[in-house]
């Protein structure tokens, strides 16, 4: 029997298992499958190549995840005994360069986190199975926004799987956006792990919607409601493009657990 340490983290309801021990790449498929019974996504904390990084976060399918980045930074800050706001630079799969994560401990033991998200590479219209969507591509993932067109669960999953056959990205999200309620329902497919998950909170999806709204409607600050809570997105639009975008959310930390396999 083998043992490894991990912790369950809760960034805006997007329950993430963060593996703390080194796991060879060829064993991660098995470990991910076991941990996915306990969370929505799995990340592996490893040693970084860049000495300026506090650690490297590798997501289960090599995708980028803002929520997991924020949560990993909060875990590292707590392990170091942080008592005030601090910046934790991370290497993260699916992102070039370092990702700056600013985390602040709260009186109840949770953390408020703000992540400088990877660049928004492009925003473009996409026709898929008779529906008109807006695609927002970030490094490591493309999100498809479906505005005010509610879909049944199975139909949404089939639409996302059709997108996966058409698009080359490592991860693809389908974001059903209710404009009146300002509510997002995220479904994410990851190519590397083959997982299809209805997420309670999605950081990169919130970023995609916030950037799209900033370009279309103006306004830098967007509150994106979703099943797990609200994520604040601050996007700077210049000349019809997104110059910078940050997301802010709440992270609750669990305690270290042991996986036996």
Structure characterization notes:
Helix content is 20%, strand content 48%. The protein is α+β, with helices and mostly antiparallel strands and 261 residues long. The chain is globular. The protein is built from four helices and 16 strands. It has two domains: 3-117 and 250-260, Diaminopimelate Epimerase, Chain A, domain 1, CATH 3.10.310.10; 120-247, Diaminopimelate Epimerase, Chain A, domain 1, CATH 3.10.310. The strands form two sheets. An eight-stranded mixed β-barrel has the order 1-2-3-4-5-6-7-16.
Name a few traits of the molecule.
261 residues, Diaminopimelate Epimerase, Chain A, domain 1, 6-stranded mixed β-sheet, 4 helices, 16 strands, globular
Question: What does this entry show, briefly?
Answer:
The protein folds into 2 domains: 3-117 and 250-260, Roll (Diaminopimelate Epimerase, Chain A, domain 1), CATH 3.10.310; 120-247, Diaminopimelate Epimerase, Chain A, domain 1.
């Amino acid at each position: 029997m083998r043992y490894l340490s991990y912790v369950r983290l809760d960034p805006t309801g997007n329950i993430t298992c963060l593996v703390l021990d080194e796991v060879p790449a060829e064993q991660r498929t098995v470990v991910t499958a076991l941990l996915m019974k306990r969370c929505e996504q799995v990340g592996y904390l490893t040693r970084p190549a860049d000495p300026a990084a506090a650690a490297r976060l590798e997501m289960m399918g090599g995708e980028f995840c803002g929520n997991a980045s924020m949560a990993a930074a909060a875990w590292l800050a707590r392990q170091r005994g942080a008592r005030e706001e601090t910046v934790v630079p991370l290497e993260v799969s699916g992102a070039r360069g370092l990702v700056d994560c600013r985390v602040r401990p709260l009186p109840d033991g949770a953390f408020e986190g703000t992540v400088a998200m990877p660049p928004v590479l492009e925003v473009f219209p996409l026709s898929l199975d008779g529906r008109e969507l807006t695609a927002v591509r970030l490094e490591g993932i493309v999100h498809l926004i479906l505005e005010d067109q509610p879909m049944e669960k199975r139909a949404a999953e089939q639409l996302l799987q059709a997108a996966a056959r058409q698009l080359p990205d490592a991860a693809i999200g389908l974001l059903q956006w209710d404009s009146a309620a300002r509510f997002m329902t995220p479904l994410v497919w990851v190519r590397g792990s083959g997982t299809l998950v209805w997420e309670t909170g999605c950081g990169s999806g919130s970023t995609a919607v916030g950037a799209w709204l900033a370009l279309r409607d103006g306004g830098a600050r967007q509150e994106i409601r979703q099943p797990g809570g609200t994520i604040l997105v601050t996007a700077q639009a210049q000349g019809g493009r997104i110059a910078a975008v940050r997301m802010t959310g709440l992270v609750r930390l669990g305690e270290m657990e042991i996986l036996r396999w």
